[in-house]
Design brief:
single chain; 121 residues; mainly alpha; 7 helices; globular; NPHP3-like_N; repeat
Length: 121
């Protein structure tokens, strides 16, 4: 199973999420999940949630918090999958759109279909 998934997509956003989670200082960023604009976006009334700031401002950590929040909120519904692309300007040549889309597929597949048994048969 791992061999097939790694062949289809070498990009593993779960590993990137784990690295980002280690960077987060405990207790930081909780304000975002309580912010009225976030609540509006989460309820479906906002079309997009735009987070901008200078390099190393903590945007990636905030995105991780949102992804974790949405994943937790939807974990009991097997039809909901939450994933995110983490871009790194230092690795731009290794992140062409087809590889990024394959990475999204990988994340969603592993979240929604933890076993490849049916596919392999």
């Amino acid at each position: 199973q791992d061999t097939i998934i790694n062949w289809l997509s070498p990009i593993n956003f779960f590993l990137q999420q784990a690295d980002i989670a280690q960077m987060r200082a405990k207790g930081t960023g909780g304000w975002l999940l309580k912010h009225p604009l976030f609540k509006q976006w989460e309820s479906g009334s906002g079309r997009r949630l735009w987070c901008h700031g200078i390099h190393i401002a903590g945007k990636t950590v905030l995105v991780l918090m949102v992804v974790n929040h949405l994943s937790t909120a939807g974990k009991n519904d097997k039809n909901i999958g939450v994933t995110c692309i983490y871009l790194n300007h230092k690795e731009a040549d290794q992140q062409p759109p087809p590889k990024l889309l394959a990475g999204l597929w990988r994340s969603l597949y592993l979240t929604l279909c933890p076993s490849l048994e049916g596919v392999l048969k």
